[in-house]
Every structure is written in structure tokens, then in C-alpha cells.
């Protein structure tokens, strides 16, 4: 071997040794808890106890599982005992509550219907509690002696004005006209319609029935009068 070849061999060995030292230092820096004998690919083993201990643990687990009773039912048996199953899914839960309670009417929506004058109920059109009524509906017909007297007064005032005619003194005609208007106005305030007033004017002895109208729409919750009362 020549001198040149010896020098080349020594240089190669020196470089190889230096590379090995650099690799060793890098491993110690990056993995200080790993021994030099462990390679990066070497698996890390974990001690889990002796085989006898593992066998004992599996036996205890088997005994615990054996203590749990398991029952399998076919479809008919599930139906007989009332077993029900349902698919698990996300939904809102609702709970029905059954309890004893009392229902009261809202006080702000209660209304009482009364006649504008006293009298006798000749006809009552509300047959039962709970009946639906509408605003403006006739619910009763009332006979009142006061209305009858006022109707007779209105009829006589019309006859008096007609009897005076146009030849009478203007003061007498004006007084008769005022009496007619006052009598008619009083009957209108008691609820008589224009048709009823016309019937009074054309009849010798009018039979006046005062209608009672419903002022609201709603449900009848109580009847305080009866027909004929």
C-alpha cells in the first residue's frame, strides 16, 4: 500500500468517527431519557403485571358479568307485558299533567244585558246557558205598562195635531207638534224602532212589545230571567 493510499484511509476513518460522534450527541440531546442501545425504531414496552395477576382480573370480571341477569323476549312476549321501544332521536319532550281545576270567566270580558225599563218578559229567545248570541240580536220581548201609556200618549198627540189642522192658531199647532216630538223621543229612548212607532201611529189600540237587543257578541253564561217573569 502506498503512502498516498494510507493517507486516504486514515482520512476516511477520521471522518467516519467524527460523524458517529455527531450522531451520538444529537441522539442524546433530542432523547435524553433513551439509552444508547435503544434505536429510534425500537418499541417501548409497558409492564402490565404478571400473567397470574391478569388471569385473576379476567376471572373477577367474568364473575361480575355472570351476576347480571339477561332476559330475551320475543315479539309476542313483549306485546303481552307491554314493553315498548322507540328509535332514539332528538326531539322536544312534552309532559301531560292531569289535575282538578276550576274554569272562571275573564272578568274583563263579562257583560250584563238589561232592559231600559221594567216590565214582564213576554218572549225569551235565549233557550239555554252556553247559547251563542251576536250583537244586535233580539234576545227578549218586554211588555211594560209605562211603554204602553207612553205609546197611547204618542198616538193621542198625533190625533190632536191632525184635528187642529192648519187653520188653528200657530201657538196651538206648535204646542201639539212639541207634544208629538216629546212622546216619540221618549219611546225611541226606550228602544222602540221606527216600524213600531209607525204601527202605533196607525193603530187604534196598539199592542206594544219592547224588544231587548244584545249589546255584545258572546256566550250566555247565566240567565237571570225566565219567560213570563
Give structural notes:
There is one protein chain. The protein is mainly alpha-helical and 229 residues long. Among the domains are: 1-29; 116-219, no CATH class. 44% of the residues lie in helices and 8% in strands. It has six helices and five strands. The protein has helices at 3-30, 51-67, 75-81, 145-164, 170-189, 194-202; strands at 120-124, 132-133, 138-143, 210-213, 218-219. The strands form two sheets. It has a three-stranded antiparallel β-sheet. Helix 4 runs antiparallel to helix 5 and helix 4 packs across helix 6. It is elongated and about 175 Å long. The termini are far apart. Mean pLDDT is 75; it is low at 36-50.
Amino acid at each position: 500500500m502506498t503512502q498516498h493510499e494510507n493517507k486516504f484511509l486514515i482520512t476516511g476513518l477520521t471522518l467516519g468517527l467524527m460523524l458517529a460522534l455527531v450522531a451520538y450527541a444529537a441522539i442524546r440531546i433530542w432523547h435524553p431519557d433513551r439509552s444508547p442501545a435503544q434505536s429510534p425504531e425500537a418499541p417501548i414496552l409497558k409492564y402490565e403485571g404478571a400473567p397470574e395477576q391478569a388471569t385473576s382480573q379476567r376471572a373477577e370480571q367474568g364473575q361480575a358479568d355472570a351476576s347480571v341477569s339477561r332476559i330475551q323476549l320475543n315479539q309476542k312476549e313483549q306485546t303481552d307485558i307491554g314493553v315498548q321501544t322507540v328509535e332514539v332521536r332528538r326531539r322536544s319532550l312534552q309532559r301531560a299533567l292531569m289535575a282538578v281545576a276550576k274554569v272562571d270567566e275573564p272578568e274583563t270580558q263579562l257583560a250584563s244585558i238589561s232592559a231600559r225599563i221594567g216590565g214582564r218578559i213576554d218572549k225569551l229567545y235565549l233557550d239555554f246557558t252556553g247559547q251563542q248570541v251576536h250583537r244586535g240580536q233580539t234576545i227578549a220581548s218586554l211588555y211594560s205598562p209605562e211603554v204602553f201609556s207612553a205609546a197611547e200618549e204618542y198616538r193621542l198627540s198625533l190625533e190632536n195635531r191632525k184635528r187642529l189642522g192648519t187653520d188653528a192658531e200657530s201657538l196651538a199647532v206648535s204646542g201639539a207638534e212639541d207634544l208629538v216630538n216629546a212622546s216619540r223621543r221618549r219611546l225611541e229612548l226606550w228602544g222602540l224602532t221606527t216600524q213600531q212607532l209607525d204601527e202605533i201611529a196607525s193603530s187604534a189600540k196598539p199592542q206594544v212589545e219592547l224588544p231587548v237587543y244584545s249589546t255584545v257578541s258572546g256566550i250566555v253564561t247565566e240567565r237571570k230571567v225566565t219567560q213570563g217573569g
